Fold each of these.
Amino acid sequence: MDIDIVKIANSGQCFRMNPIKGREEVCTLVAFGEYLEIEKTDTGYQFSCSEEEWERLWKVYFDCSTDYEGLGHLIEEGDKYLQSALVHGKGIRILRQELFETIISFIISQQNNIPRIKKSVETLCTKYGEKRQNFRKEVYFTFPEPMSLAQAGTEALRDCGLGYRSRYIHETSRMIAEGEVKLSALQQMEYQSAKKELLKLPGVGIKVAECIALFGLHHVDAFPIDTHIDAVLKEYYPQGFPFKKYEGYAGILQQYMFYYDLMY
């Protein structure tokens, strides 16, 4: 399988995948309430889960059904920038993340950097998530439920280092907890309808809605444009990015571009 855990952890799409201090070849991950350790070996990766759990959860989470390697053959040979981004981003996959966590995480991401986003997300989990133990009997926390954040209140959320975003997170959580925006309905919508619905949430603008559509709903035509991607488009695609050519996987290419610009 074409996968690189370190690149995925650094790609800005997931904020609870982290290397273990002193054991950088091992990453921990908490998703859908479950804890996973991923260790790089000479032959690939070893996952700390049963075969049943892999088939039920992680195989889907890592989008194992998509042929990412095959996408490389579809990029125009003359597009040197995208070819380079593909080479440097090889192994990145678009994770199939839990929707509410993705919504809150990308509201936090506004005008923020990855270390601060991770710290804020982890603080939310510690204060408002469910306390559990992993297979090592170590404590970890799940991502909070909408009602937990709705009941927390704006000031308490502000104490998590969220600043002005605390109001957005509180109101968004309330709207979801009370059914004003239904996550189950969002998951059934096509891309444009889902994006329109997401824009009803406080603190969710076009860029954040695109991120949620790509990373939380797996609409791989979603194409978030932040400062990194905006600079790339202006420099390498002044006539416009060829969305029609890459219809059906433009969001995957966007992630290669983002990682390439961020890291290189």
Amino acid sequence: MKEKYSGISIPELSLFKKGKVRDVFDLKDKLLFVASDRISAFDFVLPSLIPEKGKVLTQISKFWFEFTSLACPNHFVTDDINKYPEYLYKYKDKLDKRSMLVKKTEVIPIECIVRGYISGSGWKDYKASGKICGAKLPSGLKESAQLEDVIFTPSTKAEEGHDINISFKEMQKRVGTELALKIKRVSIELYQKASLFALSKGIIIADTKFEFGLMEDDLVLIDEVFTPDSSRFWPIADYAPGRSQASLDKQFVRDYLLSTEWDRKSAPPELPDSIIEQTSKRYQEIFHLLTGKKKL
């Protein structure tokens, strides 16, 4: 099995933020994003690492940042280590393929979720209330059904613990009506653009989440985009409404954990080698299918 990467220490740089998966370093005018092979589920960072995961997240985000740049500017600068500050060259082996330099932005503290299909927490919400995050839907929908109209369901962005679903009205109160409307419009446009492309590759993007920042009042797409950590990817060949779907994303790990006796409150268990290996393969497969690249 390939080498697993838990994180990096760079004494020359201040740690700006340690996320569940990414370590972010401060370069004064920019940030250095380094994606580890850590994986989180149910608000816990699992003790197991997924080989190559950080490389997939970085390289698939780079692909989508370039693909969607006309629809929305983004914070990506480069992932070419030869263009990094010289003092980082000695970390080349650790940074290669799993890091990128990005512009600094004023982060908008909202998770921007777009759903084209009914699944996951949305399906649970619909079964209980006939709605998803307050959005009323037709009765009689099946699990994994395609929604007649794509819906935008924002949530708070929690540093720790659960994000909390909020109404669009609440989002308007928090960020202002004009900005909220722009974020909603751009989020749906990004989803539709990427979904059409993914369909041409045999993949359904069931839902996804975005994060945005501001640079001199301009809206900028940040963090990660259309990765198997932030999106649900379903092979069209296996798709059938009325059940959960085969997936090429993190849902595979969630489903495994739900099959165990773990209470999702205490420290999570180690993943079996077979689950680690299958998860790594799924992440790499979605990268290859969407980007057309044979190697990371």
Amino acid sequence: MTRAAMTVPVIGLAALFSSTGVAAAADGSVQAELSPVPVSGPEGSSGTGMVQISGTTLSFTLAAKGLLAGSPHAAHIHFGATARHECPTAADNNAAALDKETAPETHFTTTEGGPAYGDIVVSLTTTGDTSPDSGLAVDRFPVGDNFEYSRGDVQVTEDVAKAIVSGEAVAVIHGVDYDGDGAYSAGDRGVSDLDPTLPGEATDPALCGVLNVSQMGSMPAGGVSTGGGSTTGTENAGLLGLGALAAVGGGVALIARRRTSTDS
């Protein structure tokens, strides 16, 4: 009887670890230094990103400078099982003319970068949905030439979480003013290869960086420095996994109480 009384809580605790084992399988941090995409990336622009994964919960900080002022910049994490898991090179520009595009060799599209970085798996929106469905939610992405923002509690699939912590994902920020008119316009670029209702300038990639395994143990306090500029869409990235730890603590306490009762 004594053996049974002590065994039940142990089994319960083992089950708890088993149920959380899948989530714990993808814990870690990755970070990226973002550089201008060949052909299209604005000269002098740069960015920094960091992503922390706890199970299937993602937190991120993203910062950039030197982009088009006063305009939204879509930002995503890209991944593809058959992609090269890297940023595109100039050789990826296939110079295939798109609708109303008059100089394809001087433009670099998101589609042309696909073989290098894969599809959108996380939309780094400032608020709301973060799934690939929000990939072009231009009203929920950071605005301006300089920005910095953070979000926590973003839910991703187990496969995406594992790909990110394995260093196989790529961060991309979009939006290029090819003709220098200070706004996203059709110009000689034409309409977007992703959505014909948008100008291509709004969706072409500007900055790219591979999310490599980070040597840092946690998200940096205060985010990533851009060297000045505005901050938009900031949400605090909270501590993760406290509920699971509390549950483990409860299981241990239950074992202790059972042992005390049996010994007496």
